[in-house]
Amino acid sequence: MSAARAVISQRKNGREVQLDLHGYSTETALWLSREVVETAWERGCDRVVMIHGSKHVATPAASGQTGQGRTKWALRQALSRGEFNRWAEPPKSGSHDRKAVSDRLGLALKSNPKPDPGSPWPEPPEPEYDRERRRD
Q1: Contact between residue 44 and residue 95 where contact means Cβ atoms under 8 Å apart
Q2: Within 10 Å of residue 113's Cβ, how many Cβ atoms?
Q3: Residue 109's beta-bridge partner residues?
Q4: Distance between CA 12 and CA 33 in Å, rounded?
Q5: What is the dihedral of CA 101, 43, 93, 103, to 10 degrees?
Q6: Rounded distance, CA 117 to CA 109, Å?
Q7: Nearest residue to 48 via CA among 81, 78, 24
Q8: How many angstroms separate the CA atoms of 64 and 116, rounded?
């Protein structure tokens, strides 16, 4: 199985994409999320679900702190700042699944008037650290 298949999977007749970010630094997870959201939009998908873990981390860490939840809150902040606006519905649209007590962030994508289902998925880098994948 290629790294892309292990990290990126399509569901619901190809309309939803899941991206598993376990094993990546926050910076790499943000980069890969942007790439996958853009490609999913290009392919005409409706939704991208980014699995980041840290289900029970309900508030962001204090500035400068490290530990669980960094990727979770960095993704939510990127959404709030509009970093996904080119491809996803606006943050205040109510279309996204971004509950604080969750291990994933679901983005509702804008409709693409000229989708290309053959657009290649980005090739994810090798995980930066080994970590047991938890499915809560």
Answers
A1: no
A2: 6
A3: 88
A4: 20
A5: 0
A6: 15
A7: 78
A8: 41
Residue-wise pLDDT tens digits, 2-46: 444 458 888 877 789 999 998 888 899 999 999 999 999 999 999
Residue type, 100: A
As beta bridge partners, residue 11 has: 16
The sign one gets for the Cα dihedral 48, 9, 24, 28 is negative
Distant-in-sequence, close-in-space partners of 10: CB < 8 Å, separation ≥ 6: 16, 17, 18, 45
Domains of the chain: 3-59+67-108 (3.30.1370.110)
What pLDDT, on a 0 to 100 scale, did the predictor assign at position 96? 56
Segment 91-100 long-range contacts (CB within 8 Å, at least 24 positions apart): 97/49, 100/58, 100/59
Element containing residue 11 per DSSP (H, E)? strand 8-11
The 3-state DSSP class for residue 57 equals coil
